[in-house]
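User: Hi! Is it possible to get a structure for several chains at once, not just one? Here's what I have:
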Amino acid sequence: MQILILGISLLFLFVLCLYPFGTLIGKIIFGSENISLMDLFTNSSTLTAVLNTLIISLGTAFLSTIIALLLSWPLTRTDLPGKKILRSLFCLPYAIPPFIGAIAWIYLANPQTGIINKLLGYSVLNIYSYTGLIWAMSGFFYTYILLSLLSALDRMDSSLEEAARLSGAGPLKVFFHISLPLVFPSFLSGILLVILASAASFGIPALIGNPARIYMITTKIFTLQKMGTMNGIYSGATLSLLLLGIAIIVLVINAVLLKKKFQVISGKTARPSLISLGNYKWPLFIIICMMLFFLLFLPLLAIAISAFSKLQGDISLSNFTIDNFIRIFSEVEETPRALLNSLKLGFVAASVATILGLFLSYLEQKTKIKGRSLISIIVAFPYATPGTVIALALIITFSSNIMGIPISLYNTLTLIGLAYIAKYLNFAVRTTGDGLQQIHDCLHEAARISGADWWTSIKTIWIPILTPSLVASFFLVFMPTFSELTMTILLTGPGLETLGTLLFQLQEYSDISGGGAAVLALFIVLVIAIINYTVKLISKGKYGL
Amino acid sequence: MMKLWLVLLLLGGCVASKKNEQELWIYTSMYKDTVADLTRELEKDFPGVKFNWYQAGSEEIASKVNAEIMSGSIKADILISSDRFWYEDLAASGKLHIYQSANSINVPIDLKNPQGFYTAYALPIMVLCYNNEIIKDNRDSPKSFSEMSEPKWMNQYTTGSPLASGTSFTTMAFLVEKYGWDYIKALRKNNTISEGGNSGVIRRIQNGERAVGQVLLENILRLVKQDKRLVTVYPSDGVIFNANIMAIVKKEGSAELKERFVDWMYTKKGQDAAIRSYMYSPLPGYQAPEGAPPLEELRHSSFNWSGEFLKKTMLDRNNLKEQFTKIMFE
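Assistant: Yes, the chains can be modeled jointly so their relative placement is included. Here is the combined structure:
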């Protein structure tokens, strides 16, 4: 059983994360086009792109870390009012489709007519800048670090904190000297995810970076692919090797930093006793609410204005309408089909990725199989690769036959689903891996000594302890796939509309008043909030974000 | 291992079992409502044929088809999109089927391939548009493409990106041909935003981020009834005719159905659908789209598609995009 399941997991890993890229690289090397790697990698614009990518992804990781750290302590260890609802809300920004989020920030903070600038009376904010780009990206990506931290802090044995506190340490000292070091692996892996995610992201860099003339590797790849020649396509794919390089460096750093392996015993520990904030309670509450306002409500507000506007860019009561909602939900015939397809794809991809991720991180952390440490590097490949390149690799690999078997997955939902799993498996492996890290082997050994077989111990010990991580992993995969665009647009076909492609259609082509895309974006955030709430309701508040 | 193959096989089996009806795969960059309009009419005239549309921007279509070429077989039967130079490429590499429909004989010679690899199905045109809440006095409004390079339009102008949109590329090629790279350099100096497709341009004009934009007439005409702020300018140095090119992909087997489809697209029904979507017909005798001036009025002052220009631009396409990227984005 153990061998079969783990074997299948490895096979999936190979088929999804290695084989397509191998095929693509094979085509590049043995294809008819001659690409000079030296020229491509050493020309000045490539170097600028690499430099910008480093600046922006490190900057985003830095800002995201600060936001997440500021939030994680009050949200887990204090008696802050409204903690539960605040936690859910702070996880929502990532549900906003990135290119809609970027449009919202352009609307709010462009130097000419940004609403915030207008309100302030003069042009203070310029979204078209390094800071603007880092801010817009951090507004999405801090959720990775926050989620990692929250679920790790929740699982942590709080008796260590109690001990420190009894020895006279103040609450912040306890947090920074005891709690944070103990959840360091999760914390670090959250930060690394942000670095990888921002280096590989496309939507925000295109919409905000291009007008600011800040080039990143992904936007550079896009321009190469759009040169309109086969040479351009191959060059773009080749350049994505640079992103793989960055991914490998990041992961090696991770491995080095975590060299001193430690395990934290987790299980059914006492709930951490909450620190009373006393006089600081309400001031802190107000600060936190303001953060929420800037991270979630402000961009949502910009989207809502667009959704309720007859004419775009006109803010006045006479311009208010609900026609956009009526049109999207009763006239656009694709809406129900797109919603259904996206739900199917999101659920299947998030479930499969989470289960697969669990087994793969089990393989990596709890077995002694040779080469196991490669797993986290291999799953990072597709994640670090831009969506267009993944789509290309999958079309080449799966459209005529699959490793010799003559069936085609081209123009099927299955292929889109596989693309999602390949791209986001990294999240699942990392998130479930963080969970596993906190389960000491002794629990497993105890179960085995008591006569449980491998599966029983997985079922009765691992999964219950891991459920928060599994749920977090599910949502981390579900949220971006629910409105994914870059891969889907190339893999989609007749009848295979998803919310992402519909959103794009409405935004780019077919929606007369231009508010339709905003309506759909609000709807996407709402659906994710509802699913999260339902999970919480069913589990009586135990699980969910 | 065996079991897994079986599962995969079953999975594929469900996917691969298709009904034995005639079907056509059409990849197009035309708008969704145009496609819906066409499908309604087509289904009446082609009973028993299933029309599968893939609708996306010209550049996405090119990406998808290029990926299909790499995988060994093109799924699309018919291509209709606006990057004419890409079609020249496809024709040169033997991917297109030669067909000159009797119905499209009267399409002017500069709007089709002389060997019959493709013909223009409809003509979107590139014009200027401004927001009259920002430019209140008509006398201050922009008059020509060339004027947009003047310093007075600093921080005021936006275009689509030639890398993202086929019509923006065509326009850029014409303008560079006429005014040279200095024109693009001046646009850059003016902090022009060149990003995305035509709808992005309209969005920036509507929210006031930019006062003037280079945009397709059809995008303006679709909105102008509700949005009185948008004003069309037919540039005095000539509008730029783009072409929505239609071509048949070369495949084994009979091309009869595909040829019939192309014939139909040049009938009155097929052409009227394009006009309803605010594009001009390339055939003589059709009226202009609603709210637009007659074709003849624009045609004499427009930039011309000479065979020489076409060939030069096709060969130079990569270089043009690279140059543009260097000047505008880096």
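The radius of gyration of chain B is 21 Å. Residues 21-123+243-291 of chain B form a domain with the D-Maltodextrin-Binding Protein; domain 2 fold (CATH 3.40.190.10).

User: Great, thank you!
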